[in-house]
């Protein structure tokens, strides 16, 4: 065995240990490679290097590490945070530098205090330059190589002069980042009406849409000032219990449904999903609430349902003669049928209505021997008019074609004469 060869079943590849860290003012998350043998099972701060520079972050899930490696895989974490979501908080991450020391934590507090002065200075410059923007927050990175300014605006803002002015003031790189109303609430909100810290700031990372249907289903007040959060939109907590309310609604009987109760049959007026109570009105006008276990839905008899459907349909008169219009006998003649199944006693059209002029018989007008024409007089006249009109159209089309052919022949003769004259003039 040579020096380069390795024994079978052994590999020198070392599995990279990864650490899940939350960092930044916007609570971003990412995977960071490290070589630590042990991760303390307490909340600890670490110094990391990202694409923005040196930063300080916090270890996520300190109890979920074994041998210095995070127990959950990257795919599991991606699926937990909805991999296809646009607001996925996971980033590319970076590398782990060291665990933060006391000096690092003191330096971080000093940078946080200086970021407040930078926020005031930026707000002052923006008002002096009459820029249509609201300065929300400022973040000074741990390495000191960048200052991130968060602002909101209704449209695009030309802040190039503002960036140059701030760069001259602090002698560092300035980054302007525009955010929406929800991200603004995530940065500056504190306590909500429930007495707890705002959800988007404390733990909520993916802000899913909330609509008015959820508020109506939970029978909450529709006053915008009471169901809206710091961002001015509907509160995210309306979505937490939406699935439960839909399941409870499916159990309850619908409004105006007929139900059986211990006091007799009645009609459902209203229902409470959380308490599972149903308000029933009886024939005398009395109303009473019952539990969902004390009532029973009345299933309609299928014959009654068919009868109601028939009542709703418009009345249709029955048709006779197989759906054909009923034909009246002509004046002075006999009925065309003796009975429901008797033979037909009909006369030919020539005998019934003799025509004053003889018309040329076509294939359509000829009636073969042994068959009798059942068409009435008016319909026969309409058919004859239709045939005449068709014959006129055929004649007019033939005449047009003849005229076109004559015109084409004349043009060809003129062209031939012109060509012959031109040739003789050139020869002369």
Q: What portion of the residues fall into strands of 2 or more residues?
A: 15-25%
The end-to-end span amounts to: 108 Å
Share in helix: 25-40%
Enumerate the spans where pLDDT stays under 50 for 5 or more consecutive residues: 1-13, 329-355, 359-373, 418-428
Series of secondary-structure elements, N-terminal to C-terminal: EEEEEEHEHEEHEHHHHHEEEEEHHH
Label the structural class.
alpha+beta
The profile of the biggest β sheet is: 5 strands, mixed, barrel
Rg: 46 Å
Q: Kindly state the mean pLDDT as a whole number?
A: 76
Shape: extended
Strand order of the largest sheet: 1-2-7-3-4
**Continuous helix count:** 11
Please count the beta strands (DSSP E, at least 2 residues each).
15
Topology:
Elements: E1 17-23, E2 28-34, E3 45-49, E4 54-59, E5 65-66, E6 69-70, H1 74-80, E7 90-99, H2 102-128, E8 134-140, E9 146-152, H3 160-170, E10 173-178, H4 181-188, H5 199-202, H6 212-217, H7 224-227, H8 242-251, E11 258-261, E12 264-272, E13 277-281, E14 287-291, E15 296-297, H9 302-312, H10 349-352, H11 377-427
Parallel strand pairs: 2-7, 9-10
Antiparallel strand pairs: 1-2, 1-4, 3-4, 3-7, 5-6, 8-9, 11-12, 11-15, 12-13, 13-14
